[in-house]
Every structure is written in C-alpha cells, then in structure tokens.
Amino acid sequence: MKKDEIKIGHTYSAKVSDRIVTVRIDSTNTHGGWNATNTATGKRIRIKSAQRLRRAVGDAAPANRRSKKASAEITPADEGIAAARAEAAGPDVNPTVEVITGQPVPAKKTRTRKPAAEPKPKRVSALDAAAQVLADAGQPMRAKEMIDAMAERGLWSSPNGRTPASTLYAALLRELRDKGASSRFRKVDRGLFEYAG
Fold first, then answer.
1. Phi then psi for 124, rounded to 5 degrees?
2. Residue 114 confidence (pLDDT)
3. Which terminal residue of the chain, N or C, has fewer Cβ atoms less than 10 Å from its own Cβ?
4. Residue 71: predicted pLDDT
C-alpha cells in the first residue's frame, strides 16, 4: 500500500513476523510508521512502513491478481480430497481455546532418549606413557628413545605428528618447570630424563 492510503482507525491485513494478520492502525509513531494493534492477539505493534500493509480488511483482492485456485474449477473429487485432509489433520487446538471453549489441549509428545553410548576408554597421554616407560627402564632416556619404547609397548603412538620426540621433550620440560619438585621426571643431563617417582 501507499502511505497516503493508510487511515487511522481502519483495519488492514499486514505482514507481521512472516504471517499475515489483521491489525488496527491506532496512531502515527513519532519515529515513523504507525502504532497498531493485532486484532487477534491484542498486542500492540509498530508498522514501520506502508509496504507491510497488504490491503484494508473488507476490500476485495485486486482485480489484476488472481490466484490459480480461484481460476480453476473445484470438482467434487477435489472437495473430497480436501475433506479427507482436514479430517486426517484433526482439530486445530490452541491452549487459549481450552480456556474459552473448554476443548482439551492435545498432550505433548514425549521424546524417547537414545541409550547412552558406552564411554570410550581414555587414551593415555604421552607424558603418562613416558612416565611408565622411564619407571620400567630404571635408567635415563632421551625423548626419541621414549617415543620408540612407547610405540613398541603400544602405550602411545603419535597421531600423525611430524616431530613427536620434540613435542614430548617440550612437555617434559614444561612439567619440570610447572611442578618443580613434585614432577614425575628429573633432568639428569642435556636431553636425558629419568623417572623421579
């Protein structure tokens, strides 16, 4: 619609939240547009532009716009199909209708949950595997030797890392720095670590 066609106090069909509803224009809004009331819900809304309004309620549809359904003839078979669809759909019940008409509200469907999947076994970290290897070896080892021993025993293998020995070396140094005396590892010499217990 055009802005000059809109009159205060009249009702129009308008697009609100992706739905076509009937609204009554109450007044003009100071920020532009109009203050309106949704006649179905009684909620106050703001119509920002005239493009939201489709037509005045009670007006016929524009002559140049004819729907395909209006131009096609409805046969008795079509009426039977429409009746069957309406019967299959059942009554359209709204919670507010129960208060007004006393019709029961359909029960909500309860979802059945899938049974919980079995938890996957926790993967041993490289540091935990290194601690096991050093404890069993009883002698100082280099990071590369620890990686090889962990892979042989099946404790830990690199998940496609290019330099697992460097990563383990950095993790050992980080634990020594962060935990200090309570660390599981002790640096014996350059690149050599032993199990501290």
1. -75, 135
2. 82
3. C
4. 43
Q: 3 φ, ψ to 5°?
A: -60, -40
Give the integer Cα–Cα distance in Å for 23 and 14: 7
Which long-range contacts link 150-157 to residues 24+ away (Cβ below 8 Å)? 150/126, 155/124, 155/129, 156/123, 156/124, 156/125, 156/126, 156/128, 156/129
DSSP annotation of 157 = -
Dig out the tokens for 183 from the structure.
């660390």
Which CA distances in Å does 64 have to 53, 60, 61, 161, 165? 18, 11, 9, 69, 78
User: Which residues face 27 on adjacent strands?
Assistant: 35
The CA distance from 181 to 118, in Å, is 38
The size of the chain, in residues, is 197
User: How buried is 145 (Cβ within 10 angstroms: 0-12 exposed, 13-18 middle, 19+ buried)?
Assistant: middle
Query: Residue 46: what residue type?
Result: R
Tell me, yes or no, if the pTM score tops 0.70. no
Residue 22: what are its φ and ψ, rounded to 5°?
A: -95, 130
Residues 76-117 pLDDT 10s? 555 656 565 555 555 554 455 455 556 666 677 788 888 888
Q: In the beta sheet, which residues pair with residue 187? A: 193
DSSP class of 22: E
| Sign of the four-CA dihedral 96, 102, 103, 104 | positive
Strand partners, 185: 195
